[in-house]
Amino acid sequence: MVDSTGVEVPLVRLKVEQFFAWQMYPLMNYIFFDQNSPDVPNRYRMFKTKEETQSFSEQDFHNVNMLKVYYDVLNIIGSRMRTLSNAKIQLVGCNNNVGLENSNIQLSYRRADEVRRYLIDIWGVDSSRVTLQARNLPEKPTKSRDSLGIEENRRVEIYSDVWDVLKPVLVNDTINIPEPPTIRFRMNIKADDGVAKTALNVKQGERSLKLFSMPGKPDSTLDWNPIIDWNTIADQGSAPSTPDALKFGLDVTDKKGEEAHPVGSIPVELVTVKKKREAGNVDKQLAIYRLILFDFNSPSVGANNSRIINSFILDNLKNGSKIDITGFTDKLGNPDVNMKLSSGRAKSVADYIKWRDTQARGVGGTRPQYTNETPEGRIYNRSVEVRVETPVIIE
Length: 395
Prior knowledge:
- By secondary structure, the protein is an alpha+beta fold.
- It folds into three domains: about 30-165, CATH 3.30.1330.60; about 180-270, Sandwich (Immunoglobulin-like), CATH 2.60.40; about 280-390, CATH 3.30.1330.60.
- Helices cover about 20% and strands about 30% of the residues.
- It has helices spanning about 65-70, 75-85, 105-120, 145-150, 275-280, 305-315, 335-355, 375-380, and strands spanning about 15-25, 30, 90-95, 130-135, 155-160, 170-180, 180-185, 190, 195-205, 205-215, 220-225, 225-230, 245-255, 260, 265, 270, 285-290, 320-325, 360, 385-390.
- Strands 1, 6, 16, 17, 18, 19 and 20 form a seven-stranded mixed sheet that branches. Strands 9, 10, 13, 14 and 15 form a five-stranded antiparallel sheet that branches. Strands 2-5-3-4 form a four-stranded mixed sheet.
- The longest helix has 19 residues, at about 335-355.
């Protein structure tokens, strides 16, 4: 296990505690595009017919991670536009303004029009409620010269005159919190002919919780020691949820096609809400709020996050509430600068909330909650998480 301070301790038993919780998912108003392409990438969930939209509800986002909610962003906005009949939106198409996209305003326009057509054709939004704008770089571009940073500028930005169109998704949930939150797998692989491919599969009962695929070590070597960290809280959809043992298997294939399949397991103790209340134990309710889209290299809370704090957090604090605030960054840039920036953002949020029982810290890019390989993953990693624990009176 790896505790909140980064200390590594051997794991002999995994304790999973169940809580009633409110989860808030901020809605990023960007749709990202592939290089020189006007088409919405297929990682976004898009319906093919109007009939499919009838069963959509944002209250169905139970035990999921933030990116799963984000990939439904066009459906969330379409559903809200259908309900908020007087709301209007503006779509701003952008390009990264380098290489094939340099000064390609037409590409920017086509990207915005793709989003517009989906909202009109599938969600039935009247065309008079959707306006288009095209530009090269976004008004607030990612300034990194790294190729990963540059690709974040290939996007359509969505704005509305009604806050409810883009407000965060709030879901009443039952979540499972493993202790420890981070499980570290250390592997030692010896292959005379070099490793071709490796995968680590984690299961509980017959359910596969997580599959980690790793590329083979490129050179022919006797000894390879990969490390994988599994953040079980960030990815609620894969969190252990039964008392079955956690089983894990490593599948290794060398460059000659020979295989090895070592396995292991860890006992799991599941503490349900029902079990705690039947025993009369002290319980707590959780509320997990996430803040994103801070200005580049700035610790300031900003207008959008201020509104979220005022609307969702401050009114729900009660006597006995404890707040734990953690700042995160992506992997781009200098690690020391990222650590300082994440700490500054966590402190700014704590100073804004002004609650007596609050802890705030930054962890930089040392504990990524989402993949750093996509623009949306990196932006959601540049976040501050506000976790509120409030005691529950058991009668």
